[in-house]
């Protein structure tokens, strides 16, 4: 598990073996059962989590009570509610395991201590936050400016193989469409292959 974490952060910064040991020490492994919530709307998010195994969905409930999925976090992805974590406000997000999963979690307090002790960790999380901002911007542009057909194709490209692990309703929630409309898109896409 720590090898996967090292591989993930090595894309952004270099740490010696001793530095990685210091960095990884405060992370705690949490095993999460399918359908278990690691964050519920209204709670305060006090962690960032690195998905070592499984799959999570990060979503909120809109005014009509329907689920709106922001993203899926699979092996090698990070989960948190950055607004709640940074601004110390109740979360509007829910983070739920879609499969039996394992996540390495670090508390806000421990992360702040790493910033003080290891300046390169602040650089790491700055780079990761910048990449998250880019991904969020692209997601907003996709939702507001692209057809559902194009969003579906982007989903397949962004999450290869994930569609088989999700329900049609979960995919539709991510795309911002009904599952009936998703069926039509899938049918049309399979005819065009």
TrEMBL record:
<dbReference type="GO" id="GO:0016301">
    <property type="term" value="F:kinase activity"/>
</dbReference>
<dbReference type="InterPro" id="IPR018490">
    <property type="entry name" value="cNMP-bd_dom_sf"/>
</dbReference>
<keyword id="KW-0808">Transferase</keyword>
<dbReference type="InterPro" id="IPR000595">
    <property type="entry name" value="cNMP-bd_dom"/>
</dbReference>
<feature type="domain" description="Cyclic nucleotide-binding">
    <location>
        <begin position="30"/>
        <end position="114"/>
    </location>
</feature>
<protein>
    <submittedName>
        <fullName>cAMP-binding domain of CRP or a regulatory subunit of cAMP-dependent protein kinases</fullName>
    </submittedName>
</protein>
<dbReference type="InterPro" id="IPR014710">
    <property type="entry name" value="RmlC-like_jellyroll"/>
</dbReference>
<dbReference type="Pfam" id="PF00027">
    <property type="entry name" value="cNMP_binding"/>
</dbReference>
<keyword id="KW-0418">Kinase</keyword>
